[in-house]
Amino acid sequence: MLATKEAVTGASIKKAIESRDGPMLSSFYADDALVRVIDRNNPPSKPREIRGRAAITTFWDDICSRAMSHRVDLTIAQGDNLAFSQDCAYPDGTKVFCAAMLELKDGKIARQTVVQAWDE
Amino acid sequence: MARPIATRYARSGDVQIAYQVVGQGSLDLVFVPGFISNLDLHWEDEGYSRLLSRLSAFSRLILFDKRGTGLSDRVDANALPSLETRMDDVRAVMDAAGSSRAAILGASEGAPMAILFAATYPERTRSLVLYAGYAHFHKWVMDPERLQTFIDAAETNWGTGATLQNFAPGRLDDARFAAWWARFERLSASPTAAAALARMNAEIDVRGALASIRAQTLLIHRRNDARVAPEASRYLARNIPDAQLCEISGRDHPIWTGDVNRVADLIEEFLTGTHAPPDTDRVLAALLVTRVSDTARLGDRMWSERSLRFQETLRLLVGRHGGRIADQYGDVVVSRFDGPARAIRCAAALRDAAQGIGIASAQGVHVGEIDARGPPSGLTVRVAVKIAEHAGRGGILASRLVSEIATGSGLHFVDAGRLALDDLEGPLALVEATSEQHLEPACRSRTPAAAEPSALTARENEVVALIADGKSNAAIAIELSLSEHTVKRHVANILTKLDLPSRAAAAAFAVRQTGPDGP
């Protein structure tokens, strides 16, 4: 298990996402964390589920390997819940917008739901 | 399914490479196509569209046309680019799409390119999937002599779809697919470019690169692949470190033909560790395929009048039997019903209507799952169309399953032999729908006394044998030096004597009497 380099806060998430730091992002999750992604291909009744830190590490490695820009605009924290919105752009101009809701447990992300929309 | 997908261009040296990006998955997947391709056309074929939809459901799928093909810049046919140059187009497209690292899927001729990419850019290769791939063209695809024959044929027949037999022999009888394939040839490459591409592919030998592949590799090959011998993938499995080989059933070579879902399942499972739950947007339906034809040689004007009249009647009758017209092309109409008995009753009404109008009909009924949305497509439709093609004039053929589901409906069926289809594991048992005879069992065997061939005269036996060969009355008349009218009379007598409902049933009867190898 990777040592948590930083506490999971809106600021540390913003820094990791904007610098495309996959290992840092992965270190924020609990071992049995669950990430659910809802988008055009994965509707709310059948979201894509990524379970466990190993799979989540692959997920972030894949996303962070993309030569694209990410900007985290807004983060809201309330107790063990955290939410943020994110604007992303690919070099060819394709834009993506994501909104994420996080549940923290013992200082780690236990559950995350991402809703995303893409230019197509 | 046509989808409005943006086509963009990536600069690779002096050449512009057309590419498309589709899907919202977290991993990037680059599809390196085979011999020829055309980004716009792929979405118009049912199988291709399904493959791309499946792959883009879990990935950000990056598609491109290799230089010299499809929507990408043409190249000088006399100064063809090396495999290395073409491989570098993959990198250029990935750069343009912002993909630093991707899973690479190489199909057929795309496989050697993918192999070279994975060996050259290990840091940019997340994983590698090779479908019907090979490392050496002459060893596993064609020897120089067969290649020359292929090139000679391509130079004269290019654009007619003539190469289909080399790639997907199982789809030769699929008129719609054959027409798509001809367009695929024309819109992917010119005749000279096609011959040049074939010559260029013949140079492929990437055996030396296999050992340096570091990415995890999945190999998929159909056991009876018509174009590339499965031994090609077995060789790859032995020589690529950490490669797993999955041999699956099937004969047609293109990755978008045959059991596309099976291929997509394997790729998705390999790349994500899981695959999509089975498609739940499918419903059970009975399909009726109605073909009409101008066997009486009415002439264009009279035929089009009668055909139009029949189409009007058809719309009325299909609606009256609780069905709806699902698709129509040429003189073929596909209608969809909730149950097979309705489809059969509608078929009987349509046969009578066609007879009244004075045109020939032949119909097929099959029951199976189809996509709930859009015009029906896929295996169930292909089988129904094949059954209709097999039906004789005025005949209503159905799969045995139809007669089994229709038990208790009062409909009557007789056995009508078997139909071998490439898409299916075994031959499909057929039945012929007969007129309703309420006092007889629902599925009767023909009475042996009436069904003796000896009940026929020598001439009638000759006629029945020719019917079994699939010959028309006109063709039989020429062969036996009789008038067509006389042949018609013989056919009517044969059906009466044998108590058979149609030519198709007589043909099936003749085949049963003589066995498949003749008398």
From TrEMBL, chain A:
InterPro entries named in the record: NTF2-like_dom_sf, SnoaL-like
Pfam families the UniProt entry points to: SnoaL_2 (PF12680)
SUPFAM superfamilies linked: NTF2-like (SSF54427)
Chain segments annotated as coiled-coil in the UniProt record: none
Chain ranges of the SnoaL-like domain: 16-111
Domain of life: Bacteria
Protein name: Nuclear transport factor 2 family protein
Organism, as annotated: Aminobacter anthyllidis
